[in-house]
Amino acid sequence: MEFASSLGHHVTVYKRTGTPPNRVKMEKPPITKVALNGEKISDFAKKLLSMPPGKEIMVERIDFAKDVVFRESSYGKDLYEIFLSNRKAPSNDRLYSLNMIRQAGARHDPVLPIAAGYLHYLGTDRYSADELRKIFYRSATTFSTYCGDEECGIVLSGFGKDLIPALKTVRHFMENVKPDEKAYKQYVARLLTAREEAKKNPRNVFRSLNMYAAYGGDRENNPFLYSSVLSKEELLKLSPAFLVEKAKKFLGFRESSGRVMSYVGPHTFEELDRAVFENLYGKKPSSGKLTIPPRREFLLLPPGKPKVYLLPFDSVQLLFGIRSRMSVFDPEKLALIELFNQYYGAGGLDSVVFQEIREARGLAYSAGAFYITASEKGKHNAFATYAGLQPDKFFEAADAFFQLLRTMPEKPVAFETAKENVIKELVSQRIYGDLYAFHRGIRKQGLPGDIRPELLEKIRKLTLNDLKKFFLQEIAEGSFDVYISGKVSSLDRKKLARYGEVIELDASKTFGY
Question: With a threshold of 0.70, does the pTM exceed it?
Answer without folding.
Answer: yes
